[in-house]
Design brief:
single chain; 4-stranded antiparallel sheet; 14 strands
């Protein structure tokens, strides 16, 4: 018998639901967990706070000597302290990080377990129980942001929290920290929600395709379900059955819950799918490497080479010095663990500033976006709806530069470091509402009331979970009957 369009949709919705129902239920449960137990991380500010001041008098090798010996061009050049010695750490865009002792010029990779143990002891006063490694991947350092620091030594501390530190063999820095409660909950939270098992996530392109397609199928299933739910209500009213729900048992509950949860399920699935867009439909917020290079005006290697030992020693005590360049002028940003200052070896007006002058940043932006002009510059308001988000926000030192292109693109620059933070054209501003708004209920006024926001988001997620559980049971029952027939 030839099936009509509605019957085909019923069959398609049914079997797509059978395949995807467990994923959808898992996404709702893990979403609740992620609200209260985020994926573990070690903030850059905390890394710096746990370091010691750089021993400036022991610097014996200039940045120019170091950059001359590095094969690839530096994209980041830092001076820190490790084990009481000054250390240059150089990152490039394509290759692993390189660490060079600033007192001798020799390579400063972590030589073994004892070296990793010493670094971890310097970071934390807690006794060390065990050191494992080196390892390339595990669940908590699987993200690509850790790639240039691999492999790692995993240091298990002897504390009640079950703390584990990850020491990069490349730079000797502690780059990640996890605690037992974070690891336990995130196996049911982030790992489930993001489909994040190490075996899959370590291959970014494969993981990206898998999650994108699964999310898209979830959107399709939700659309079909809403259409069919409305159609069945219409048939019930036409038949004058005394109820708008035709079904019985679990199917009736699936229909009822779908009526009340369907729109939220659809918007949540759609916004989750958009989080995996990665430039497919909307632009990405990160600047292109060519834009970064033009914004700087000179390479990081050239900027570092302009800073001799005497200049560095004249800057006073700091825990990290980071080299950058803006509009062709090199400068150093020092961080004491609580304050940053800006200095230049070639431009006296850039010595001992808290933030860069707007004129320099505008000049750099015009170089980076040479086909467009900067039509306005302003600080980012504390209550800005596009960048002061529930889980992330721009620093107070951020400036917004508006370009005169068709999308009135915003370029956000941190005036305290001279780095481009993000780019928001019209599609990115739309994405703020479609993703942050629909997925996290990040709406002005609502997120300021923590109690109301928590009650609303958890209630909606629980409603979606109850709905998806009916789908899991119906899918199980359908699959069992099919296998038994």
């Amino acid at each position: 018998m030839k099936l009509g369009i509605t019957q085909k949709l019923v069959v398609l919705h049914r079997w797509l639901g059978v395949v995807l129902c467990l994923f959808i239920a898992g996404w709702f449960v893990s979403g609740i967990i992620l609200i209260y137990v985020p994926f573990p991380s070690l903030a850059v500010a905390e890394r710096i706070a746990n370091r010691t001041d750089v021993p400036l008098n022991e610097i014996g090798v200039s940045p120019a000597t170091v950059t001359a010996g590095i094969e690839s061009a530096a994209d980041s050049f830092r001076l820190i302290a490790r084990s009481g010695r000054p250390l240059y750490v150089i990152h490039s865009r394509e290759k692993a990080a390189v660490a060079i002792w600033a007192d001798s010029g020799s390579l400063a990779t972590v030589s073994g377990v004892d070296d990793a143990r010493s670094i971890a002891r310097e970071f934390s006063d807690v006794p060390i129980r065990l050191v494992e490694g080196p390892i390339d991947f595990d669940q908590w350092v699987v993200h690509q942001s850790f790639d240039d620091q691999r492999p790692f030594y995993k240091v298990l501390l002897d504390d009640e929290a079950g703390t584990e530190l990850y020491v990069s063999q490349r730079s000797g820095e502690v780059v990640q920290r996890t605690r037992r409660v974070e690891r336990t909950w995130n196996y049911f939270g982030a790992v489930v929600h993001w489909i994040y098992p190490t075996v899959l996530r370590r291959h970014w392109a494969v993981w990206d395709q898998v999650v994108w397609w699964l999310s898209l199928v979830g959107v399709i299933v939700s659309v079909f379900g809403i259409w069919l739910g409305i159609d069945r209500m219409r048939l019930a009213m036409r038949a004058n059955k005394g109820s708008i729900f035709l079904y019985r048992g679990w199917m009736r509950w699936h229909h009822i819950l779908g009526v009340f949860a369907g729109l939220f399920v659809l918007t949540w699935m759609l916004s989750g799918w958009l989080s995996m867009d990665h430039g497919r439909l909307m632009s990405i917020p990160d600047p292109q490497p060519s834009q970064i290079d033009r914004f700087r005006g000179i390479s990081i290697s050239t900027a570092a080479a302009s800073m001799d030992i005497g200049f560095i020693q004249s800057l006073g005590n700091f825990r990290e010095l980071k080299v950058n360049a803006v509009a062709g002028t090199p400068y150093a940003v020092t961080n004491t663990g609580g304050e940053t200052r800006i200095y230049s070896p070639v431009e006296s007006r850039l010595n001992d500033l808290a933030v860069l002058p707007e004129s320099i940043i505008v000049d750099a932006a015009r170089r980076a976006w040479s086909t467009n002009d900067v039509v306005s510059v302003q600080g980012v308001d504390a209550n800005d709806t596009y960048t002061r988000l529930r889980n992330s926000r721009l620093p107070e030192s951020a400036l917004r530069l508006t370009l005169d292109d068709e999308s009135s693109t915003w370029v956000h620059v941190d005036s305290a470091s001279g780095q481009i933070i993000s780019i928001m054209d019209r599609s990115r501003r739309l994405n703020r509402w479609l993703f942050n708004g629909l997925h996290s209920l990040d709406f002005p006024g609502l997120t300021q009331s923590k109690l109301l926001w928590n009650l609303l988001i958890v209630s909606l997620l629980c409603l979606g979970l109850a709905f998806s559980i009916t789908g899991v049971y119906l899918g199980y029952r359908r699959a069992r009957r099919k296998l038994q027939s």
